[in-house]
Specification:
Layout: E1 11-15, H1 26-32, H2 37-55, E2 78-85, E3 88-95, E4 99-108, H3 116-120, H4 123-135, H5 141-160, E5 169-174, E6 178-183, E7 194-202, E8 205-213, H6 220-230
Antiparallel strand pairs: 1-3, 2-3, 4-8, 5-6, 6-7, 7-8
Bound molecules: coenzyme A.
Length: 231
């Protein structure tokens, strides 16, 4: 499913159960020591997905350990993202020279638990969700919005290193399967705060993905003459 949301150049792998967890590297196994069975299986299956996504780039298996803020530390030259929820594990990866930022998220389809919507949305976003639901009640719009915020955060955090609350992001969802997230970090950051993404609902799941390409490189001389010629 997740591959439907990704641009070319991004590799992916997903699993809908824990039938084939990855053998863990010692540092990964140490991280899971004493954790509940459910978390260990989720972690190991997501690592199996990540190793397959990396293999698609020609990168050998490595331990994928959390760095600052919990973001996985990908091998040098690679960007990627991991998600897991009940009934789904997935990972995506891409060369850092092609893709600057990646974020994916999976959620069970269906309404958010009572009381959550008010905590994670602005009044404007709630009006937007109501309009979307009035046009098509078959889509779990609240979940799509929640998931899209998490996908945007996972793309944002490794580059910016700044934690964001759910009210620090404004989302606009399109029934066509796209969304725009505008992030408002509490402190200034040079990282572009606008992320474009895609969403999908099916098989009882909501999946979202954000991918930002590396800006095209323009030769310096051409950039100078282009700039001065139009000034
Ligand atoms: C980090 C967070 C986004 C993870 O989302 P989740 O739905 O709880 O869990 P998921 O299974 O989808 O994702 C977990 C994976 O995300 C990755 N992850 C964790 N922290 C991350 C971070 N800071 N940046 C990028 N990826 C991160 C990890 O790979 C983790 O899996 P692992 O521990 O097995 O390696 C969420 O727990 C969180 O802290 N959210 C608050 C911040 C936020 O989302 N703000 C929204 C406004 S922009």
């Amino acid at each position: 499913m997740i591959e439907e949301l990704l641009p070319s150049g991004v590799t992916s792998s997903e699993a809908f159960d824990d039938a084939a967890p990855a053998p863990l590297f010692p540092a990964e196994a140490a991280l899971m020591e004493g954790r509940r069975e459910r978390r260990r299986l989720q972690f190991a299956t997501a690592r199996a997905c990540a190793r397959r996504a990396l293999a698609g780039l020609g990168v050998r298996p490595v331990a994928l350990l959390p760095g600052p803020g919990g973001a996985p530390q990908w091998p040098s030259g690679v960007v990627g993202s991991i998600t897991h929820c009940e009934g789904y594990r997935g990972a995506v990866a891409a060369p850092a020279g092609v893709v600057a930022a990646l974020g994916i998220d999976a959620e069970p389809a269906g309404p958010l638990p009572p009381g959550v919507l008010g905590l994670i949305t602005s009044p404007g976003e709630r009006a937007h969700l109501a309009a979307l639901a009035a046009a098509d009640a078959s889509v779990p719009w609240e979940r799509v919005l929640f998931s899209a915020k998490e996908a945007a955060y996972k793309a944002w955090y490794p580059a910016a290193g700044i934690w964001l609350g759910f009210r620090d992001a404004s989302l606009v969802l399109s029934p066509a399967g796209t969304f725009t997230a505008v992030l408002r970090p509490p402190v200034p950051s040079p990282v572009d705060p606008v992320y474009e993404g895609r969403w999908l609902a099916g098989r009882g799941l909501v999946l979202t993905a954000v991918a930002r390409g590396v800006p095209a490189l323009v030769p310096a001389a051409r950039a100078v003459s282009f700039g001065s010629g139009r000034a």
